[in-house]
């Protein structure tokens, strides 16, 4: 059982680190989507723990938080001038108010680092951390993402 947990943690961490390394400074819709999928996968791993669908595992939580933190650090750099064409989910507000966009990403990263430093000890703690991190994500999506359906 412990081996499965370690493998899951490595998978979450690996996807985040590899995804960040591959997508860094690419600026394409595909790179942006890949980075957000890393965050979504990390949040999903934490959500499964918070909901009791998966047992609490500190290594999985650490890996997920590291993925969120590291991805948030590089994500704003994917939106350089001239990359606004062809991305139907990215609002023009990203380029119009890039300072706020960067600040929101920095806050997400800092909040993930803070949670990591005081790692939640159980599923309830992971749920609390998700509320904080989710608030960051939701606020940014509200302002800077175009809803595509």
TrEMBL record:
GO BP, one annotated term: electron transport chain
GO cellular component, one term: periplasmic space
Pfam families: Cytochrom_C_2 (PF01322)
Name assigned to this protein: Cytochrome c-556 Cytochrome c556
Molecular-function GO term, any one: heme binding
Signal peptide: 1-23
Record lineage: Bacteria, Pseudomonadati, Pseudomonadota, Alphaproteobacteria, Hyphomicrobiales
Post-translational modification, as annotated: Binds 1 heme group per subunit.
Keywords: Electron transport, Heme, Iron, Metal-binding, Signal, Transport
Repeat keyword on record: no
Binding site residues for heme c: 137, 140-141
Keyword Ligase: no
């Amino acid at each position: 059982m412990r081996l499965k947990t370690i493998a899951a943690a490595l998978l979450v961490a690996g996807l985040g680190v590899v995804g960040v390394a591959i997508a860094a400074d690419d600026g394409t819709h595909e790179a942006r989507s890949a980075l957000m999928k890393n965050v979504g996968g990390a949040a999903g791993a934490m959500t499964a723990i918070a909901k009791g669908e998966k047992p609490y595992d500190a290594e999985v939580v650490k890996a997920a938080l590291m993925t969120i933190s590291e991805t948030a650090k590089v994500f704003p750099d994917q939106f350089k001038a001239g990359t606004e064409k062809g991305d139907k989910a990215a609002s023009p507000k990203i380029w119009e108010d890039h300072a706020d966009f960067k600040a929101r990403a920095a806050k997400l990263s800092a909040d993930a680092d803070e949670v990591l430093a005081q790692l939640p000890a159980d599923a309830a703690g992971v749920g609390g951390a998700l509320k904080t991190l989710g608030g960051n994500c939701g606020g940014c999506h509200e302002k800077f993402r175009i809803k595509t359906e």
